[in-house]
Design brief:
The chain is of the alpha+beta class. It is about 35% helix and about 15% strand. The protein is elongated, with a radius of gyration of 41 Å. One of its GO terms (molecular function) is serine-type D-Ala-D-Ala carboxypeptidase activity.
Length: about 900
C-alpha cells in the first residue's frame, strides 16, 4: 500500500496561521508607505508653490525698512489738512532701547526670536491649516517679529490681504532679511516701525508722547503697555480704552514673569501700577487732529479696502471730499454745549453729512467729547433705526413697484401679520381706521406700514429696492434676512442712512458714499476711487416720498425748521423691552435711540443719539432729550445751507397732481356736487390716475314723479303719495323730503298721512336725497275746506306719530353721523411731555374721522396737502412717541 503524499492536517493549520498573521503586517506597511508618499508629495507640491510665490515677492530695500514716507491728506479745495505717518516718528538706536523693552516684546510677540532663522515652522503650519479650513483666509498667527517687520515695510496689514501667497512671500523675505541683518538690527528696525495708536509710530516716539521721557527710561509697566499695543494699537490705547489697555498690559507682564524676565516682586509692582500713571495730556496737535478724527478713520478704511496700500507707510497723497468748514462745525456742535443742550451726561451722538447729488461725504461726527484719536466712530457704527427705515423698506418699494399714490388707502386696525402670532402696535395704541398712505407715513403708523410690507409687497421687491440703495440685507436682522419688523425697524449706520435718503433728494440716483476721490502713489500713479452712480429708483418714487416727508419737516418746524429752505425728513425711535425697563429701573417713556434724517436739494444729514450701552442711560420726552437729534440737525443743516442756493424739488412728468374725493377707495374723481370740504389733492404716478367719478356726491338726481295729494274729509286727513324713486346703485339709500306749507319731513316710504291738516290752499313739494345730495323739487296744491275747530280736532283720533318721529330721528342721526365722518376732527391733541397744545385746524389729512391721540404720543404728524391746500404751521405736532412697541424691536 502506497503512502499518501501531502502535508498533515496539523502542518496545514500551522501554515495557515502563519500566512494569516503576515497579512495585517503587509497592509500596515502599505498604508505607512502610502502616507509617506502623500506627505512627500505634499512637501514637494508645497515647496513648488512656495518657490512660485517667493519668485513673485517684492524687493525689500533699506528704504522700505527705514522709510519715513508720510501720507498727505488733501481737502476738497486742494489744501493739505493732515499728514499721516512720518510726521510723528522718532528713531532710536539699538543701544537706546532698554532690555526690559526687548524682553516685553519678545515675550508677547515672538518668544523664539533669538533662535529662529526668520520663520516659525509651527506658526507656518498653523497658518496653512487655517488657510484650508477657512476658505482661503489666514486666521492663525505664527508671524515672527522678522515677518512682521517685512509686512510693515512692504505689505498691507489688512486682514483681507493675509493670503497664503502673502504669507509665503513674507516668509521668503524674512529668511533673506535674517541673512543680511543681525537680530539686534531687526529688533531695532521693528521697534522704530510699529504703530502706537493715533499718529504715533515707533516705541521711541510713544515714550515721548505718552510719558514725556526717552525710551531708555521705560519701566516694566510702560514697556509691557507698548508691547501689548503692537497687536492692536488703537484698541489697546490707554487713552481710548484704559480698561482694555490694562488687561492687555497685565497679560504681557504675566508672560514676562513666566519667561523669567522679571521677578514676582517686579511683576506685582507692575500689576499694581494704575494704567494712567505717568500719562501726559494729549498735545495741541492731537486736539486739532480730533476735529477730523472720524473723517480720517473713514479715509483709512476706504483706502485700505479699495487699494493694497497702507496709508501709514506708503507715502500717498489722498484727495478727500472733506468740507473743513462743515467738519469743524460738526465737531464744535458735538463737543460743546454752545449750540445744543445735551441735557444728560453720557449722551452720545453720531452723524453723517453727504452731498445729495454726488454722494461725497462732506463731514462726519464720530461722537461727543472726543478725547482719543482713532477711537469709536459712531457715524459708521450700526444702530437700530426705528421708523427712519420706513421710506426705505416699505413706502419707497410700494410706490416704485406697485405705483401706489400718496392717497392710497389703508385701514389702520387691529392686525396680526399673516403666518405669525405677532401683532404690531401703533405708538398711541390706537387705530384710525381708513387713512391715506401719506397720513400713515407722516403720522408714523406701524400697523398700516406692516400691512404694506407683509401683504402688498413681495420680499424680492423690498430686497431689490434696499440693495439699490446700498443697504446690506443681511444687516437688517439677526437672522440675516428681512423679517416682518423690518417694515418699521432695522439696523443701519448714519452714513448708510444719509446716503440712502440722498437718493430721494436727487431724483432717485444712488452713489455709494465716499470720502476719497483719488489716491496718488509715491511714484505718481493715480488711482481713481470715485464710485459709479446708479439709478436706484424712478423719479416718481423719489419725488412722491419727498413730498410726503416734507410734511414731517413742516410739522416739526419748531425743531428742524430751516426758514424758507425746502426740506424733507423722518424721525425714528426704538424701544426698550418691558424686561429691560424693569431690569434697568427706567420709566415707561424711556427709549434707547432717537434719530432724525433730513435732506435738502443740496445735502442729506442723518443724526443718531443715544448711549453706548443701555445701562448708561435713556432718552425721554420728560426732559426733552429725545429732541436732541432734531436740534443737532437744525443747527448743522442751517450752517451748511447758509451760502447755498436752496431750490425746491421740481415735479417730474411721471407724477400727476390729482384732486379726488376724500374717503373713496379706490380713489375716485369728485362729482359736480362734491362739496369743497371733501376734496383732497394727492400725487399719482402717470398711467395710474383715477378716471371714475365718485357716486357719493357727484350724481345728478331727477325730479320725483307721481306726486298726488287728497283730503279725506270724513277722517280729516291729508293723504300724500308718490312713485318710488329707483337708484342705479343698489347699495345707496334714498330718502324723500316732503314739505307741507314749508314744514319739512324726511321719509323713507312713498306715502304720508297728516291728521288735522291746515285749512285753505295747502302747498306740497317733494324732492329726493341720495349720494349726499338733493335733487330738484316737484309740487302740487290741494284745497282743504271747512272751519278749524279746536274742540272737534281734540276729539278726533290721531295717527300714531311715533313711527314718523322714530324715522326722523334715525334720519337725522344718520345725517349727523355722516356729516361727522366727513368733517375734519377739530379736537386738540395734547402732548403733556412737551407742555404745549397744538390743534389741527382744517388739516387735509385729518378729514377722515380721527381718534384722539395718546397724551404721550410720538409721531403726531398730520399729513398736509402740499399741492392744493395751505399748511397751517401753527398746528405742528411736537414729537413722535414710541414708534415701535416692545414687541416691535428687531430681535
Amino acid at each position: 500500500m502506497s503512502e499518501k503524499k501531502g502535508i498533515s492536517r496539523k502542518d496545514y493549520k500551522k501554515s495557515s496561521k502563519k500566512n494569516n498573521a503576515t497579512k495585517p503586517k503587509t497592509w500596515l506597511k502599505r498604508i505607512i508607505l502610502a502616507l509617506i508618499t502623500v506627505f512627500l508629495l505634499v512637501i514637494i507640491a508645497g515647496g513648488a508653490l512656495f518657490t512660485y510665490y517667493a519668485s513673485n515677492a517684492p524687493e525689500l530695500t533699506e528704504e522700505d525698512l527705514v522709510g519715513t514716507f508720510s501720507t498727505e491728506l488733501v481737502d476738497r479745495d486742494g489744501d493739505i489738512f493732515y499728514t499721516l505717518g512720518g510726521e510723528n516718528r522718532e528713531y532710536a538706536e539699538a543701544n537706546e532701547y532698554p532690555e526690559v523693552m526687548i524682553d516685553a516684546m519678545t515675550a508677547i510677540e515672538d518668544q523664539r526670536f533669538h533662535d529662529h532663522i526668520g520663520i516659525d515652522p509651527i506658526g507656518i503650519a498653523r497658518a496653512a491649516l487655517g488657510y484650508v479650513t477657512n476658505q482661503g483666509q489666514i486666521v492663525g498667527g505664527g508671524s515672527t517679529i522678522t515677518q512682521q517687520l517685512v509686512k510693515l515695510s512692504v505689505f498691507s496689514t489688512e486682514r483681507a490681504d493675509q493670503t497664503l501667497e502673502r504669507k509665503a512671500q513674507e516668509a521668503w523675505l524674512a529668511l533673506q532679511l535674517e541673512r543680511e541683518k543681525s537680530k539686534e538690527q531687526i529688533m531695532t528696525l521693528y521697534l522704530n516701525k510699529i504703530h502706537m495708536a493715533g499718529n504715533v509710530y515707533g516705541v521711541a516716539t510713544a515714550a515721548e508722547e505718552y510719558y514725556d521721557k526717552p525710551v531708555s527710561e521705560l519701566e516694566i509697566h510702560e514697556a509691557a503697555l507698548f508691547a501689548g499695543m503692537a497687536k492692536a494699537p488703537n484698541r489697546y490705547s490707554p487713552y481710548a480704552n484704559p480698561e482694555l489697555a490694562k488687561e492687555r498690559r497685565d497679560t504681557v507682564i504675566s508672560v514676562m514673569l513666566e519667561e523669567g524676565h522679571i521677578t514676582d516682586e517686579e511683576a506685582q509692582k507692575a500689576y499694581d501700577t494704575p494704567i494712567d500713571e505717568g500719562l501726559v495730556e494729549q498735545t495741541e496737535s492731537d486736539s486739532n487732529a480730533l476735529v477730523i478724527d472720524a473723517y480720517l478713520m473713514r479715509v483709512l478704511d476706504e483706502v485700505g479696502e479699495k487699494t493694497n496700500l497702507n496709508p501709514n507707510t506708503a507715502g500717498l497723497t489722498i484727495h478727500t471730499n472733506i468740507d473743513m468748514d462743515a467738519q469743524k462745525h460738526v465737531f464744535d456742535v458735538l463737543n460743546s454745549d454752545e449750540y445744543v443742550d445735551y441735557i444728560k451726561d453720557g449722551v452720545e451722538a453720531g452723524l453723517s453729512l453727504v452731498e445729495a447729488d454726488t454722494g461725497k461725504i462732506a463731514a462726519l461726527g464720530g461722537g461727543r467729547n472726543t478725547q482719543i484719536l482713532l477711537g469709536q466712530n459712531r457715524a459708521t457704527q450700526i444702530k437700530q433705526t426705528g421708523s427712519t427705515i420706513k421710506p426705505l423698506s416699505t413706502y419707497g418699494p410700494a410706490i416704485e413697484y406697485l405705483k401706489y399714490s400718496t392717497y392710497h388707502q389703508i385701514v389702520d386696525e387691529e392686525y396680526t401679520i399673516p403666518g405669525t402670532d405677532f401683532s404690531p402696535r401703533n405708538y398711541d395704541r390706537q387705530y384710525k381706521g381708513q387713512i391715506s398712505m401719506r397720513e400713515s407715513l407722516v403720522d408714523s403708523r406701524n400697523v398700516p406700514t406692516a400691512k404694506l410690507f407683509n401683504e402688498d409687497l413681495e420680499m424680492n421687491q423690498i430686497e431689490a429696492f434696499m440693495t439699490n440703495l446700498g443697504i446690506p440685507i443681511d444687516q437688517m436682522s439677526n437672522e440675516g434676512v428681512l423679517v416682518p419688523q423690518n417694515a418699521y425697524n432695522g439696523e443701519m449706520s448714519t452714513l448708510q442712512m444719509a446716503s440712502s435718503y440722498a437718493a430721494f433728494a436727487n431724483g432717485g440716483q444712488y452713489t455709494e458714499p465716499y470720502a476719497v476721490s483719488k489716491v496718488i502713489t509715491q511714484d505718481g500713479q493715480e488711482i481713481d476711487l470715485t464710485p459709479e452712480t446708479n439709478q436706484a429708483m424712478s423719479d416718481y418714487t423719489a419725488y412722491m416720498i419727498t413730498d410726503m416727508l416734507k410734511d414731517v419737516a413742516d410739522n416739526y418746524s419748531n425743531y428742524v425748521g430751516l426758514g424758507n429752505i425746502p426740506q424733507a425728513g423722518k424721525t425714528g425711535t426704538t424701544n426698550f423691552t418691558t424686561d429691560e425697563l424693569n431690569e434697568l429701573g427706567y420709566p415707561s417713556g424711556a427709549v434707547p435711540d432717537s434719530w432724525y434724517t433730513g435732506y435738502t436739494t443740496n445735502y442729506s444729514l442723518a443724526v443718531w443719539t443715544g448711549f453706548d450701552s443701555k445701562k448708561d442711560g435713556y432718552l425721554s420726552f420728560e426732559d426733552q432729550s429725545r429732541l436732541i437729534p432734531r436740534r443737532i440737525y437744525q443747527e448743522i443743516m442751517q450752517y451748511v445751507s447758509r451760502n447755498k442756493e436752496n431750490k425746491d424739488w421740481q415735479k417730474p412728468a411721471s407724477v400727476k397732481t390729482v384732486t379726488v374725493e376724500k374717503g373713496t377707495d379706490p380713489a375716485k374723481l369728485p362729482g359736480p356736487n362734491t362739496p369743497e370740504s371733501q376734496l383732497i389733492t394727492e400725487l399719482f404716478v402717470e398711467g395710474n390716475i383715477p378716471t371714475e367719478k365718485s357716486l357719493n356726491y357727484g350724481r345728478e338726481l331727477n325730479t320725483p314723479t307721481g306726486l298726488s295729494a287728497e283730503y279725506d274729509k270724513n277722517n280729516d286727513e291729508l293723504i300724500v303719495s308718490w312713485d318710488e324713486y329707483t337708484l342705479e346703485n343698489d347699495d345707496e339709500n334714498v330718502s324723500y323730503n316732503l314739505s307741507i306749507n314749508n314744514s319739512v319731513t324726511t321719509l323713507n316710504n312713498t306715502e304720508y298721512r297728516m291728521s288735522e291738516p291746515p285749512r285753505g290752499n295747502v302747498a306740497i313739494t317733494l324732492s329726493v336725497s341720495a349720494y349726499n345730495t338733493t335733487g330738484p323739487e316737484t309740487s302740487v296744491t290741494v284745497e282743504i275746506s271747512g272751519p278749524e275747530n279746536d274742540e272737534d280736532t281734540e276729539d278726533k283720533p290721531k295717527d300714531d306719530s311715533g313711527e314718523e318721529s322714530e324715522d326722523n330721528s334715525e334720519n337725522e342721526s344718520g345725517e349727523n353721523q355722516d356729516s361727522n365722518e366727513n368733517e375734519p376732527n377739530s379736537n386738540n391733541d395734547q402732548n403733556t411731555d412737551e407742555k404745549e397744545n397744538n390743534s389741527k385746524e382744517d388739516s387735509p389729512s385729518s378729514s377722515d374721522s380721527e381718534t384722539n391721540k395718546d397724551e404721550n404720543s410720538e409721531d403726531n404728524e398730520q399729513s398736509s396737502n402740499n399741492e392744493n391746500n395751505d399748511n397751517n404751521n401753527n398746528n405742528k405736532k411736537p414729537d413722535d412717541a414710541n414708534e415701535t412697541s416692545e414687541e416691535n424691536n428687531n430681535n
